[in-house]
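Re: that chain you flagged

S.,

Sorry for the slow reply, it's been a week of failed gels. I finally had a moment to sit down with the sequence you sent. For the record, here it is as I used it:
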Amino acid sequence: THKEMIKQNLKMLLLTVPGERMMEPEFGVGIYTYVFEQNTVLTQGEIQARISEQLSLYMPYVEIVDLVFNNTETNPELDENYLKIRLEYFVKPLEELDAIDLDFDFSKQLFI
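Prediction finished late last night. Pasting the structure tokens below so you have them in one place:
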């Protein structure tokens, strides 16, 4: 469906490291490039700005509704090596809300 295709395209945009895609050197947020950064409000702001910039360039029909970072600061029950990012978005042409969850386990260097 269109909704599934948009979600997959968004996931690729978030996970692709700039320079990784042939003929599109600026494409991608590169979430993995932030793996070893301090998980601070400043870093989260950089990630949010990068996501907004990339969406406006490559997926202008998607609008960010909410972006939530869950880690040990926001949720003490989580393992210190775990980060969860939840991106809620609105697809303008479909007039639908959806969300994508990105879970990282840094101790195992895994995207879950």
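What I noticed first: The helical segments are 2-15, 41-58.

Talk soon,
D.
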